[in-house]
Amino acid sequence: MNIGTIIEYLNKNKGYNIPSEYYGNISVWRDWWRGFHKPFHEFTEVNGENRIKRKLFTLKMAKKVCEDWASILLNEKTQIVIDDKTSSEFVQGEDGTGGIFGDNDFWQQGNALVEKAFYSGTGAFVVKLSGMALTGETVVKDNETKIKINYLTAHNIIPLTIRHGKIIDVAFVSEVLEKGKKYIYLETHELTDSGYKITNQYFNHENEQLKEQPLPAGIAPVINTGTDIPLFSIFSPNIVNTHSNSNGLGMSIFANAVDNLMGVDLAFNNFNRDFKLGGKKVFYAETLMQTDEDGNKITPDDVMQQLFSVVGDLPINENGQNSLMTEYNPSLRVAENKDGIQAQLDYLSFKCGLGTKHYQFNAGSVVTATQYMGDKQELIQNAAKHYISIERALQGVVKAILWAGKEILGQSVNPDAKITINFEDSYVIDKESERIRDLQEINAGLMQRWEYRMKWKGEDETTAKAMVGAELTNDELMGFGDV
What we know:
By secondary structure, the chain is α+β, with helices and mostly antiparallel strands. It has 16 helices and 19 strands.
């Protein structure tokens, strides 16, 4: 799918002036995430008149960096606490794995989206309504409507209007394969005075030309939602974009570390090439060689011969030794190569916000817990910064689901419910020390007991207050340890 073709269509038919050159950067970042950027990883060796194309060995560290950030920021232990029980169960079921999230494989797909957003610079949760009832272009309540979630990366996102750094109007582009034929699905969300207007279009894409097709059954051409709550939630790595003409899109977590990715692969390639070229080389004098009936030379090792007859004096080399046979054993430089790879990994993890010691191959070393946490201070600070972006995105998609649940499906849920995100950050934060501190704050009257349960047990406010009970004193609470 060529995003430039879609942008050209929008500019021509909608009167927009959207630049498309930024998507070239995203394509380069995708190459690095996949582990092969042809201009760098493919090279040519010249051997006489022969030209041989070869590929660099690669550690594919761009993907590893994005995987690690996704594991830290959104994982199976992340909790979404909605202070309305009915609303919470509608979104995520009783145990956090059901409801709309369960139907849409949210936790696995959401983690994958964070990884992809960190390579492409932007990700979007898009709430879609399937099989809804309409009166004209206005949505009406129908409990048979299905709520679906699309997970899209920067290649599929075209911002149309940005205000104060926030994307207000946007077009989402998806490639659809139907019975072997490829189609382009274009979905535009635009905020009007009466709420968001969603326009759906379907195209046949051949020879870089778009030919509009009838929409599939169940999809309306135009939907007026009647609300200013967007049915999408867009997020990016929480770093300032240094690229021009970004059109509101974010920047890859490794956008300013491509040189370091090159350094890692150059060091790793050198390591592997030393092993590839480091085999023993044995040079035989012509007098030891035999020739078969086809004129092919046969070395002594090919015939397992150990006794030879040589006419005349043995040839002597410059060192005073006979030179019928000479061996060459190249140095593998294992230690030097390992040090070079480690240095490049340190630079890479530093530039990607993971700290200088995130990737260590010093097996057998032991550090204290205090030293371990001290080494992770940079990671802790950057994770806290990225949590802001992920938290806003999760709250946005939950709010959109709750609105659809109430206004479209007619469920008794509350779109204005308080939504709290509890991240599982024990990997980067000493959770036990934080728990002890919170218990001390309860004793000092700085935190309520039910707030503690909401934070550490993942309970909604009503349940937490019921579990604590008004008669429980602070002294009694401290006696329970883990409330």
